[in-house]
Amino acid sequence: MAARIVSDLFVLLLVVGVPVLSLSTARDDRLRQMRRLELYVSAAISQWALAAVGVGVFFLGSLSALSVGFRRLAPATALIWASALVALSVAAILVSLFLERHGWWPAESELTYLLIPRTRQEKAWSLLLLVPTAALCEEFLYRGLLLAQVSQWLRTGAWACAVSSLAFGLAHVYQGWSGIVRASLLGALLAYPVIHFGSLYPSMLAHGLIDAVALAWLGPKFLAGNRE
Fold first, then answer.
1. CB within 8 A of 142, min separation 6: which ones?
2. What are the structural domain ranges in the chain?
């Protein structure tokens, strides 16, 4: 009974609590006074702290390591799937940037621009700190724990995918409507190999590569100069 309560509360935290905290944080003017490296460190600490709570919930709950996606997969299969996910995601991001430039897609939020690295040092820190943090923590939390728990409740992968993807999108509410929609679609895409193979590894690899491309190339090239 206690394990069920803990799992329920954690699902509520991911689906409701994190988006509320994200929105509250986005409205804090102190963020706009922070240096970009400080923002990166703060974001990473928040992610790892939430992941640590998730680890505690995992050990207290009834889910197995296999059920949350820690299933071995042939390296070639993981690489092929990760490559496909990266190609689709980068293409979708490019399309959204093109549509945004012509006013056919919601504009990026102010905080999105604040997070885009400008210097080589900032790019290095974003790649070394933000990329692995997002790939490991967010995949474990949303495509691992949340997807497995909701699947167990609803007995259907499709609805569990929808719930986890929407929760993932809402966690990016600080990025505005553009970020919410983009993250929700990305979440659904990354959930597919988890549902199909029962493994998080292709999604973790793909997530890291997608963020690396976005931070090292797409953001600086298409957005960085827009709000200098």
1. 14, 164, 165, 167, 168, 171, 187
2. 2-227
Model confidence at 31, pLDDT cuts 50, 70, 90, reads: confident
pTM (two decimals): 0.95
Output the furthest CA–CA distance in the chain (Å, rounded).
54
The pair of structure tokens assigned to 196 is 């199909």
CA 143 to chain centre: 9
- pLDDT tier at 49, thresholds 50, 70, 90: very high
Q: Report d(CA 168, CA 181) in Å as an integer.
A: 10
**Contact present, 68 and 145 (Cβ < 8 Å):** yes
Phi-psi region of 172 (alpha: psi -120 to 50; beta: other; left: phi over 0): alpha
The tokens for 31 are 């963020």
User: What value does the CA radius of gyration of the chain take, rounded to a whole number of Å?
Assistant: 17
Answer for the pair 128, 208: CB distance below 8 angstroms, yes or no. no
Q: Angle between the 147-154 and 2-12 helix axes, to the nearest 10 degrees?
A: 120
Mean pLDDT computed over every residue of the chain? 93
SS (H, E, C) 45-99: HHHHHHHHHHHHHHHHCCCCCCCCCCCCCCHHHHHHHHHHHHHHHHHHHHHHHHH
CB-based contact 40:34 (threshold 8 Å)? no
- CA-to-CA distance for 69 and 160, rounded, in angstroms? 14
